[in-house]
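Researcher: Sequence recovery benchmark, item below. Answer with residues only.
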């Protein structure tokens, strides 16, 4: 993915995030994560039925990296099993931390493949997975 396409993917998902707005219904599990060094503070809710992510939403205030990563991540996990989501999380964390990962599995999340060059932005990129992991701990 070239740098112009990365910028486009990030800005599109920041300016028009998918799945923004919480449903706050009883069959959703919700968690919050914030970044103490900036404004990032998001809630994510997942509806999980029979080990499958049926719906995912978020809300809060966050920078372009956190908002766009959350938007992309939630789109990717809907319809996937909890185990598939855990594998995606592992690959994404590996991408951010310069370890081996499966590029094909990550798709648009490859927009963050150079985020390691800005260590202070790594937490922004990882905010959605940190939040999702809190919810999946209960599964």
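Model:
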């Amino acid at each position: 993915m070239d740098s112009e396409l990365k910028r486009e993917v990030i800005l599109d998902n920041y300016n028009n995030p998918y799945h923004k707005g919480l449903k706050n219904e009883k069959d959703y599990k919700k968690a919050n994560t914030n970044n103490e060094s900036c404004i990032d503070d998001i809630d994510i809710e997942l509806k999980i039925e029979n080990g499958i992510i049926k719906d995912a939403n978020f809300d809060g205030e966050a920078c372009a990296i956190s908002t766009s990563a959350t938007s992309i991540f939630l789109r990717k996990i809907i319809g996937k099993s909890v185990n598939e989501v855990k594998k995606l999380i592992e690959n994404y964390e590996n991408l951010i931390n310069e370890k081996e990962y499966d590029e094909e599995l990550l798709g648009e999340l490859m927009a963050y493949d150079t985020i390691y060059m800005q260590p202070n932005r790594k937490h922004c990129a990882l905010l959605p997975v940190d939040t999702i992991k809190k919810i999946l701990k209960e599964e």
